[in-house]
Amino acid sequence: MIYSVTVKPGSKKGPLVLEEASDLVVFLRERPVEGKANIALIKILADYFKVPKKQITIKTGARGHKKLVEIKTMV
Question: Is the pTM of the predicted complex or chain greater than 0.85?
Fold first, then answer.
Protein backbone atom coordinates (compact mmCIF):
# COMPACT_ATOMS: atom_id res chain seq x y z
CA MET A 1 0.00 0.00 0.00
CA ILE A 2 1.28 3.49 -0.83
CA TYR A 3 0.61 6.41 1.51
CA SER A 4 1.03 10.12 1.05
CA VAL A 5 2.95 11.33 4.10
CA THR A 6 3.61 14.86 5.29
CA VAL A 7 6.55 15.03 7.68
CA LYS A 8 6.97 17.71 10.34
CA PRO A 9 10.62 17.39 11.52
CA GLY A 10 11.88 19.07 14.67
CA SER A 11 8.44 18.98 16.28
CA LYS A 12 7.93 18.93 20.03
CA LYS A 13 4.78 16.83 19.49
CA GLY A 14 6.73 13.90 18.06
CA PRO A 15 6.75 11.04 17.63
CA LEU A 16 3.12 11.15 16.54
CA VAL A 17 1.16 9.88 13.52
CA LEU A 18 -2.15 11.48 12.55
CA GLU A 19 -4.43 10.15 9.83
CA GLU A 20 -6.18 12.76 7.71
CA ALA A 21 -8.45 11.15 5.11
CA SER A 22 -6.08 8.93 3.09
CA ASP A 23 -2.97 10.88 4.07
CA LEU A 24 -0.69 10.64 7.08
CA VAL A 25 0.93 13.48 9.01
CA VAL A 26 3.97 12.43 11.03
CA PHE A 27 5.54 14.67 13.66
CA LEU A 28 9.22 13.85 14.30
CA ARG A 29 11.58 15.15 16.95
CA GLU A 30 14.57 14.54 14.68
CA ARG A 31 15.84 17.25 12.36
CA PRO A 32 16.35 16.56 8.65
CA VAL A 33 20.13 16.29 8.98
CA GLU A 34 22.07 13.43 7.36
CA GLY A 35 18.88 11.39 6.86
CA LYS A 36 18.02 11.17 10.56
CA ALA A 37 14.42 12.29 9.99
CA ASN A 38 13.89 9.63 7.29
CA ILE A 39 15.29 6.92 9.56
CA ALA A 40 13.00 8.06 12.37
CA LEU A 41 10.04 8.16 9.97
CA ILE A 42 10.59 4.55 8.93
CA LYS A 43 10.88 3.44 12.56
CA ILE A 44 7.70 5.27 13.60
CA LEU A 45 5.70 3.94 10.64
CA ALA A 46 6.94 0.40 11.33
CA ASP A 47 5.68 0.67 14.91
CA TYR A 48 2.41 2.28 13.80
CA PHE A 49 1.60 -0.36 11.15
CA LYS A 50 3.23 -3.21 13.11
CA VAL A 51 5.50 -4.31 10.28
CA PRO A 52 9.30 -4.75 10.11
CA LYS A 53 11.27 -1.65 9.08
CA LYS A 54 12.60 -3.40 5.98
CA GLN A 55 9.04 -3.50 4.56
CA ILE A 56 8.84 0.32 4.42
CA THR A 57 10.30 2.25 1.49
CA ILE A 58 10.31 5.98 0.77
CA LYS A 59 9.41 6.03 -2.93
CA THR A 60 9.57 9.79 -3.57
CA GLY A 61 10.32 12.90 -1.57
CA ALA A 62 13.28 11.64 0.47
CA ARG A 63 14.57 15.24 0.68
CA GLY A 64 11.23 17.00 1.19
CA HIS A 65 8.31 17.27 3.61
CA LYS A 66 5.87 15.48 1.27
CA LYS A 67 6.68 11.84 0.64
CA LEU A 68 5.17 8.76 -0.94
CA VAL A 69 5.85 5.79 1.28
CA GLU A 70 5.25 2.17 0.34
CA ILE A 71 4.38 -0.26 3.12
CA LYS A 72 4.52 -3.90 2.10
CA THR A 73 2.18 -6.05 4.15
CA MET A 74 2.07 -9.81 4.19
CA VAL A 75 -1.05 -11.21 2.57
Answer: yes
